[in-house]
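User: Assemble these into one structure.

Assistant: Restating your components, then the assembled model:
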Amino acid sequence: MDLTYTSEQQALRDSLSRYLDRTYTFDQRQELLRSDRPWSGDAWKHFTELGLTALPFDEEAGGIGGTMADIVAVGEILGEYLCVEPYVSCVVLAGQALRAATGSDPASRLLEAVIGGEAQVAFAHEEGAGTPAAAHVALTAREGAGGHRLTGRKELVLGAAQASAIVVTARLDGAARDPEGLALLLVDASAPGISFREYRTIDGRAAASVDLQDVPAQLLAQDATEVIEEIIANGIIALAAEAVGAMNALLRQTIEYAATRQQFGVPIGSFQVLAHRMANMKMAYLNARATLLHTTALAEAGTVSAVDTAVLKAQVARFGRTIFESAIQLHGGIGTTDELPIGHYAKRILAFEPMFGDPDFHLRAVGAAAGVPAR
Amino acid sequence: MNLDRDPALEAFRTEVAAFLDTAPTDAIREAGRRTTSAFAPFDQAMQWQRILNDKGWAAPGWPAEYGGTGWSLEQRYVFSEEYARRDLPPLLPNGLQMVGPLIIDKGTDEQKKRYLPGILSGADYWTQGYSEPGSGSDLASLRCSAVRDGDDYVINGSKIWTTLAHRANRMFMLVRTSTDGPKQAGITFLLLDRVDYPGMQIRPIVNLAGEEEQCEVFFEDVRVPASGRVGEENDGWAISKHLLTYERGASVTAPRMRRHLEQIRAAARTVPSPYGGNLADDPVFQRDLGEVAADVISFECVEKLIHSGHPMAKDPATPSMNKVLGSEITQRLTVLRTRVAGVGAVPRQLEAIEVGSGVEPLGSEFELTAMPWYLNSRATTIYAGTNEVQRDLVARTLGRR
């Protein structure tokens, strides 16, 4: 059993960190967020040069045949630097959806452009309450004379307004909660009937609500329940990696602060209540990272179950909260300001919590399956 | 990263399952179902250890040259999973997980030859003489003294929380051999090859569940051979710290926790929810069970990370973190057990829980064991160094304190 990164993965992490150390310090990032740009084009270009946009795709598709472990190895670093580039949404979510559309010309051309870093594609799935399962999708796709048309609304679509195309989860048949009748469709971002309401997420990412009124769409895959579930599972793992990266930074920075910040004539870390709180933070990080690495290894071996992903989703959110709430408390007043990275790490983890289902949803699923056979 | 399925592992699972299906006696199986703590009913646990040892499977964690199995981590998990699935009694940890590995690492050749076979076979049961009235988690404050006299040490004082001392035939203990310098510097580690030396007296203590599991041991001018000393005189603190790394995290425990979850959920299916349907389908219960289940699975991930030698596991805080996480999850599992058992957990059924008593329990076996398990588990966050002390130790690894 091996849960360590390979030397290649470690080398990739090191070179990504070196680049971000130079160009993506907290102050540089804050400046980027204050500008009108949705993210750093230079960073995206560098990600492409490092091969990150080609990472999860087969060599036949122009990719480099990486695995979930590669995505996680990179994701932890993106989380540590609070990157706002749409890596998970464009490469992991939309990219995997495009890959699922075998034999579809526009999809494979688009995938090539994603791999080459030339195109941004968004993934529109969320319809409220986290939309943790494919079956929850209600948005409808109707087949007419000229092809399919989409009507409905998608929320929290990361990178939507900057994308040239959007992959949409929709149903050809049935109603919400019906496990059948689901499909993946591709819409042009400038198609008639599509409108965006743009905003920034609390953790700095560009996102939008997307309203679709009778929008022409190209069918990528039907009977797509399993494909959508797999895309969601991979998205959860990739986002969890970013959150765990943020947790690592929070733990490190809080320990440093508690050792230097003096109150009552001594470092605050010498107070037992605070020391125990930091011990709990360290245990929370160990728990979250072990769960992430183990789930990743299962995904790589192709044996990850829905319960495994549900555990990861709930645990990273719960342990993440333990860590960031303690980090803010230990930093005192300054921890409640927007001036320190602490609160921004907190918001990265906080934004992860409701996406693809909140902890209560996933814990109920785990509880309903508890006593699952040992793997 | 690598977790590929291995066909050889599945063959191993079949071999383990076949043995565990046939080898235990009915009494051993009953003892497994009546286990309500880290310590299974004594007679059947020792009998079961003898059977396992005949097969060569009593000490999966030991080096192969000393009678261990030489199994991989994956094989150890398979063994633990099949073991837990059958509710077999866990082997008593003092010999196999604590003093045995210590003698392997730090004992003399003579001590290894003399003591390891009996530890492995279960012929000997070793009780642990560490704590004293007044010296619990602050172990270094212990006062029970040993004075060198010729080839012997003469011991005076007392020990407490000596698990199953009244059933033991051997004892490992810490004694004060010097009061000079720091308190840690005057402690010596001794192996006693009897517990019936003249001047030694053992008094069982009844616990909250009504069981006699713990004891107090009194020493009045007890002469024991100095050849039982492990390491140098006054070097016992380092020896015991080495042993603690086993006590706080050398075993594979997650499969047993998963078994708890299975049993809790199965029992919850038979319990009506006051809101209709059964408890297992109640959303609040599902969520609460899910929270503990998720923590069990995360703990399993931590355990595998530790045993697989991941860089994170080399942190000196790891044994303490493992102890805190494991004991607190165990307690929460026992809370869920009593919650599902409900009023069925309230009757005190000391006779019915006794293995082989033949006394019919009032309700199910689940109800019979729920409350003793809960009460017994209150000790898990106290023994082996309280969780508060463990958190101090974790915090100490964080940097300047």
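The longest helix of chain B spans residues 283-307.
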